[in-house]
UniProtKB/TrEMBL annotation, chains A, B:
Gene encoding the protein: aroB
The 3-dehydroquinate synthase N-terminal domain, residue ranges: 64-176
Protein name: 3-dehydroquinate synthase
Similarity remark: Belongs to the sugar phosphate cyclases superfamily. Dehydroquinate synthase family.
Naturally occurring in which organism (per UniProt): Halioxenophilus aromaticivorans
Gene3D superfamilies documented for this protein: 3.40.50.1970, Dehydroquinate synthase-like - alpha domain (1.20.1090.10)
Described purpose of this protein according to its UniProt entry: Catalyzes the conversion of 3-deoxy-D-arabino-heptulosonate 7-phosphate (DAHP) to dehydroquinate (DHQ).
Length: 365, 365
């Protein structure tokens, strides 16, 4: 088992990576009172709820199973958590445990932030994507029909337990979606790690435990460093959103849940790389390596033909990074080096959107 | 104009009391960017929105009018704020201005806490109750069918502008409801102020500007001191809830909006005083003075006959102060001295509930 720390003063917390759910007393250590509410979904609960129960023999546990999928990440579903907590007379000492992927983690964290103005919570992410991204850093929230994650809070967990054993039951498509965010860390801040991913992609796709352990650890390490510098995203933290402004537009335009978040981010990162190259900041070779690595990870690199330029611009202009009406984008100025800019020539942005719809072998030349 | 400060480190902010909306540039000083969204309601906006517009000539202003009343303080109404913000492409630099009473302030503050994970907001409370209580201290939130203020956040405003001129248009019943919270400050921490209220109640009810200014200033001063010691209500802050556990039960049982919050708190404070006396902590004379002052302020001291003991206990057991299944109550150990306890003999609690239903002249003997 590996451990690292997210350093946020009095809000600091540990991340554990490995066969963590089998570690005696580890989860219990991070729960202060007797009352626990495990929030999970209809897919994950049948597989792993029992493990949680076993590791908390002395606690009083209630459970909530949310419907599975991004399309349920909204205020209505959130309210069902409050309903259950109140019906079961849960109070301010109750700890919420998020057992599931990013949707469960984001909603549980936001519910914890809001229930009686704040109760503690623990993240037990069960997808690769949530282990390397959403469970770390305290971003919680729900979607609005007009934009992803538009309603939420910065609210840090007591601990993150990333169990690598549970990834064995993950559908292939979700494994790839998680790898998209791992590739992101290479692109924004570690060229060596990017090269390691090029060499070890087959092992990751085969769920090799050593390879996954390393990739998750390095990803969380990079994220924890960035978050520790800028908890509430006043500056540097925005680089973690490489590909996300394009990606959110794709997710929203297609309807939540049609494209997985990681899939949309994959296509979006390639768009960001392409735009960086058109703006003269990035070598074509990095764009090519990015596309090749995404394809190797079985991720989409071509965007849906039905999303118009106008839709992209409209959806991108509600992005949380927008300032004074200007779209701000995370771009690359080298492999492992990201930057945020609102100085994007419109004509190049349109070109990037247009070529993103072409088959991989024709595009980005 | 008077000014005082809520001392919360980097979250500190000023409270201005007096003819503040006429002060040139005062509101603008606390708004950092150009975009402003004024959230008000259908009663207050026609009266005072123009004043706000006049004081922000260089800003781009959108407005949202919520339906008026506690019964609309819920997630559904909250979502209409998000709808409007997103439709109007408001971003993270937008400042929300809450122009209205406690319902508008609580919902606007919570919307500000959650929109894009947090935007700045300013409180412009237009009722006496919100000026002396809800606008100060950062408690924001909405109600749930199963309990008041069960969903919310601690989120501090940039400034509070309590304009005493606007109180002239306040209905008598709402003026009295505000006075209930003012009496609370005397009861929990300032016997001298309580005596001043006994002497000056007629002036307050006549909206004498000097008297109101003093009462608001002293109330905010007491609240600011308590909040500065305990922002997130880990301890001492709970004393601000004198009468609120009983009061919330009355409000919830009767249906939100039937009893005004201040009215329910008035009856609840008398119950707390009565229970304190039965537990041997408080002189009968303080109970009598409390009842007399509440009656002088035209506040209810008799609780609705239709609320059963069982309902009280059930509603009080979802109170946010409940710990390990025990109801915790704020009680008085003297005039101007409050305490929190979970050691309440059930038989005395029942007696207090029973006598609270009797006409004032029969009860509490």
């Amino acid at each position: 088992m590996k451990q690292l720390n997210v350093d946020l003063g009095e809000r600091s917390y540990p991340i554990y990576i490995g066969s963590v759910l089998k570690q005696d007393g580890l989860l219990a250590k991070h729960i202060k009172a007797k009352q626990v509410c495990v929030v999970s979904n209809t897919t994950v609960a049948p597989l792993y709820l029992k493990l949680i129960r076993n590791s908390l023999p002395d606690h009083s546990i209630i459970t909530i199973n949310l419907p599975d999928g991004e399309e349920h990440k909204d205020l209505t579903t959130l309210n069902t958590i409050f309903d259950t907590l109140l019906t079961n007379r849960q109070n301010r000492t109750t700890t919420l445990v998020a057992l599931g992927g990013g949707v469960v983690g984001d909603m549980t964290g936001f519910a914890a932030a809001c229930y009686q103005r704040g109760v503690p919570f623990v993240q037990v992410p069960t997808t690769l994507l949530s282990q390397v991204d959403s469970s770390v850093g305290g971003k919680t929230g729900v979607n609005h029909a007009q934009g992803k994650n538009m309603i939420g809070a910065f609210y840090q967990p007591q601990a993150v337990l990333a169990d690598t054993d549970v990834l064995l039951t993950l559908p292939e498509r979700e494994l790839s979606a998680g790898i998209a965010e791992i590739i992101k860390y290479g692109l924004i801040s570690d060229a060596e790690f990017f090269a390691w991913l090029e060499d070890n992609m087959d092992a990751l796709l085969a769920c090799d435990k050593q390879a996954l352990g390393h990739a998750i650890h390095r990803s969380c390490e990079i994220k924890a460093e960035v978050v520790a510098q800028d908890e509430r995203e006043g500056g540097i933290r925005a680089i973690l959103n490489l590909g996300h402004t394009f990606g959110h537009a794709i997710e929203t335009a297609m309807g939540y849940g049609v494209w997985l978040h990681g899939e949309a981010v994959a296509a979006g990162m390639l768009m960001a790389a392409d735009l960086s190259r058109r703006m003269g900041m990035l070598d074509q070779s990095v764009v090519d390596r990015t596309q090749a690595l995404l394809l190797k990870a079985k991720l989409p690199v071509v965007t849906p033909a039905e999303i118009t330029d106008k839709q992209y611009l409209s959806l991108m202009s509600v992005d949380k990074k927008v300032l004074d009406g200007k779209i701000r984008l995370v771009l690359l100025k080298g492999l492992g080096e990201a930057m945020v800019t609102s100085e994007v020539p419109k004509v190049l942005l349109h070109k990037t959107i247009q070529v993103s719809r072409l088959p991989a072998e024709q595009a980005r030349r």
